[in-house]
Amino acid sequence: MCVCIPPYDGFDCGGCVPDLTGDNCDKKRKLVRSEIRQLSPKERLKVFSYLSLAKMKKSARFRIMSAGNRHDRATFRFHEASVYDVGAWMRYYAYKPILQNNRFNFSTTFATRGPAFLTWNRWHLAFMEREIQIITGDDNFTIPYYDWSRDGSHCAVCTDDFMGKSDSQGVLTRSSYFANWKSICSGYYYDYKYCPVAEDECKMEPLQRSPGADPSFPSLPTAADVDATLNWKTYDTPPYDTRANHSFRNALEGFISPSDGVTQMLNMHSRVLSFMGGSMSQDTICSADPLFILHQANVDKIFESWIQKQGATSAKYPKSGIPGQDPEENIVPSMPPKMNKVFLNKAETFGYTYSKYP
């Protein structure tokens, strides 16, 4: 693996650091991620066509792994997968319970329930965005965000003009743009297996979504919830998991009340997934739904607002002792490896910013 000298980046040093572009990586860039409802019908159609291409086109740069038993390397298999499915697999892989002393630790993962949640999310979103830029040849492409804090008890973008309408069974209607999408790693969740249906499309589940159907989560988080979340000054607090009080990260991840920072409840990021139901409510396959990456982008936008408000930098990233989540440990499964703390910096460091909506 190469160690690249800026301004070059990538596992082969064939790319540029995130905020530069051009043949010699000498041109500044600052892309704008817009709210999906700010896009014109033509712009929206381009986003959907790019996502569809990413779902169909095999990645020339990465493979995904399946395994019948993660303890036994003889069962490991590596498969071609589409660009989008590679990204979905990364979330699935990072969500697996951590193996410590030959036992599974279910209290955290490499990507969630700890300090790395927001920096992992930022890295993953940038990875997906860059891979789509590469296959389309469009270096100006950005993933839009979906600001769910304005929508109350309904999903305004869950229509066939946007991310797809679902029927009474939760299946996306045939007229939905993403009606034929399936989850690459669907099926029963095994702690010791990886993506068992990776080579059998017949066993892959179609996307499902049932916004507001769960009576426990009849509405989305509100703008007041967002404002309350942004008021927490400390990025994360001991014990750096779902029990962390007065923690911005834990409030945004959605395991404590945004208003008091103590009461255990599902809100913000976690509430959105539960509200949407179907594929998005399943932690292992939520990233299979393209609505998930729009949700990811909104979470990152809130993260960016907090960084700007609190003047936060990598120095705010705490040492937690959680495997894979300390500041100088690498994001799992980033390639080339990127340290967790790197992504606790302003978005402009990575060549993008967010629009205001409205």
Automatic annotation (TrEMBL):
Residues 315-337 are annotated as: Disordered. It comes from the Eukaryota. It is a single-pass type I membrane protein. It is found in: Melanosome membrane. Signal peptide: none annotated. GO terms for cellular component: melanosome membrane. One of its GO terms (biological process) is pigmentation. Residues 2-13 form the EGF-like domain. The keyword Ligase does not apply. Keywords: Melanin biosynthesis, Metal-binding. One of its GO terms (molecular function) is tyrosinase activity. Its main location: membrane. Belongs to the tyrosinase family. This is EGF-like domain-containing protein. It comes from Pleurodeles waltl (Iberian ribbed newt).
